[in-house]
Design a protein that fits this description.
This protein is α+β, with helices and mostly antiparallel strands. It contains three helices and four strands. The termini are far apart.
Length: about 70
């Protein structure tokens, strides 16, 4: 079962794992970890685990694409 994030007034949002984000963006997990530290890639730290909102990830990627 995937973790869910309840957003006020909206249906729960599924959180993605690092592996899922890596596959979605077709990038190495190490690249995403570097982006978290150096570029402010959006993530939530739950203890030692990282989780990602698909909406936030797509918004972050889209903003970088527009900066070209």
């Amino acid at each position: 079962m995937e973790p869910e994030l309840a957003i006020a007034g909206n249906a729960p949002e599924t959180l993605l794992t690092l592996r899922q984000v890596s596959a979605m963006l077709q990038l190495d997990e190490r690249t995403i970890r570097r982006w978290i530290v150096s570029k402010g890639f959006p993530c939530a730290r739950l203890g030692t685990r990282l989780r990602f909102s698909q909406r936030d990830v797509l918004r972050w990627v889209s903003a970088r694409k527009e900066d070209r």
